Amino acid sequence: MSPDPHDPSPRPSPLADLHEAIRRRAEEIYARNGKIPGRDLENWAQAEQEILRESTEPPTHRSAIVVKVNGTEYLGEYNPALSEGYLPGEFAKGVPVPVRFEGDKMFVKRPNGRELETIIVKKAPAGA
Known about the structure:
Number of helices: 2
Strand content: 25-35%
């Protein structure tokens, strides 16, 4: 199936998602190791190894994200294998993010414009 030329938001290829996930992980490794210059290839190789290992491991559990909306805390679980390259840490703690709800699902708009689809597994007053 070819992309719809009239669709204003064509989806990136899985390879582009993988490349972006590796890039983000390499930046995390760079920051975590003290932002030492000259280690780009080492950081990239480590990131690539981690991401590829994570993407080939069979999902044994679902991952979760917590979002507070109007005094209510929502715990949404998502399947990492179906999250289009989402990595924990994309959202800074306390920074507002667009969220929409459909039934038992919560969609969190990511910095790249795509949505992280979750299933709401817990809803409670914030801080409870």
